[in-house]
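Input C-alpha cells:
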C-alpha cells in the first residue's frame, strides 16, 4: 500500500496578521518560525517520521516554490518531500497536488500545513481506517454546547453526540478522491474540506477516527503560545526516552 500525504500550503494566512504585507512568506502562518523552523516544516516532520507514509507533497504559491524548495533540500528527511504549484484556493491546491501523484499511489491523506501536533498513532489509525473503508477523517466531539442561530437569534440546540469538529488528516482511496475532485470541478462545487467533496459522491461512508485537542490548527497569534508549549512538551518527552 503506497501512501502519499498532501499538505496544502498556498494560503495567505490573513487571520494571523490582518493587513500584513505579503512578502517572502513572512506574514503567512505556515512560514512563521516555531523553535527556529517554519510551522510547515514541523508538520512535514510528523509525516516523515510515520512508518506508513511513503511521500509528502507540499502545494505552494508559485513565488514560494524556489526558496521553500531550497530550504527543504537542506533538511534530512528520510522520505521524498517535494513541492508543486498550488492554486488560488485550498481545493485547487489539493487538486494540483493530486494530479502530480504517481498512478501506483493507493491512499491519499490531506493534512492542514499548520497542524504540526498530529501524533503518529492518529496518522496510522486514520490511514488504516481509510484503507479498509475507502474514506476516513479525524474529528473530535465539541465540548461546548452548540446553538443554531438565525440573525443572532437562537433557533435550536444541537445534540453534541451527533456532532464532530473535523480535523485532519482526511484520508481516501486515491481513485475515490480523484473522482470526487472531478465531480466537484464538473459541478463547480467548492467544499469546505476534502470530505465534503467525497460525501457528495455517496459511494462510501466517511468514517471518523477520534482526534485530539492537541491537534490544533494554528490560525491566530494566540495559537503560537500554545504551540510553543506543546513543542516544549514534545522535546521533554524525547529527552526522557
Amino acid at each position: 500500500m503506497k501512501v502519499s500525504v498532501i499538505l496544502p500550503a498556498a494560503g495567505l494566512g490573513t487571520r494571523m496578521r490582518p493587513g500584513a504585507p505579503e512578502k517572502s512568506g513572512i506574514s503567512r502562518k505556515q512560514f512563521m518560525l516555531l523553535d527556529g523552523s517554519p510551522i510547515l516544516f514541523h508538520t512535514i516532520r510528523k509525516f516523515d517520521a510515520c512508518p506508513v507514509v511513503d511521500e509528502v507533497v507540499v502545494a505552494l504559491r508559485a513565488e514560494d516554490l524556489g526558496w521553500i524548495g531550497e530550504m527543504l533540500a537542506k533538511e534530512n528527511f528520510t522520505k521524498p518531500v517535494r513541492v508543486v504549484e498550488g492554486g488560488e484556493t485550498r481545493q485547487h491546491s489539493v487538486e494540483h497536488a493530486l494530479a502530480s501523484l504517481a498512478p501506483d499511489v493507493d491512499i491519499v491523506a490531506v493534512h492542514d500545513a499548520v497542524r504540526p501536533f498530529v501524533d503518529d498513532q492518529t496518522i496510522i489509525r486514520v490511514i488504516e481506517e481509510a484503507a479498509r473503508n475507502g474514506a476516513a477523517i479525524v474529528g473530535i466531539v465539541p465540548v461546548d454546547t452548540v446553538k443554531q442561530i438565525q440573525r443572532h437569534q437562537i433557533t435550536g440546540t444541537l445534540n453534541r453526540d451527533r456532532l464532530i469538529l473535523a480535523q485532519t488528516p482526511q484520508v481516501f482511496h486515491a481513485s475515490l478522491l480523484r473522482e470526487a475532485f472531478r465531480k466537484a470541478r464538473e459541478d463547480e462545487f467548492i467544499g469546505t474540506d476534502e470530505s465534503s467533496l467525497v460525501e457528495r459522491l455517496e459511494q462510501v461512508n466517511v468514517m471518523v477516527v477520534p482526534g485530539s485537542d492537541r491537534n490544533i490548527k494554528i490560525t491566530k497569534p494566540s495559537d503560537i503560545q500554545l504551540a510553543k508549549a506543546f513543542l516544549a512538551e514534545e522535546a521533554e518527552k524525547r529527552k526522557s526516552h
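The radius of gyration is 18 Å. Residues 14-26 have pLDDT under 50 and may be disordered.
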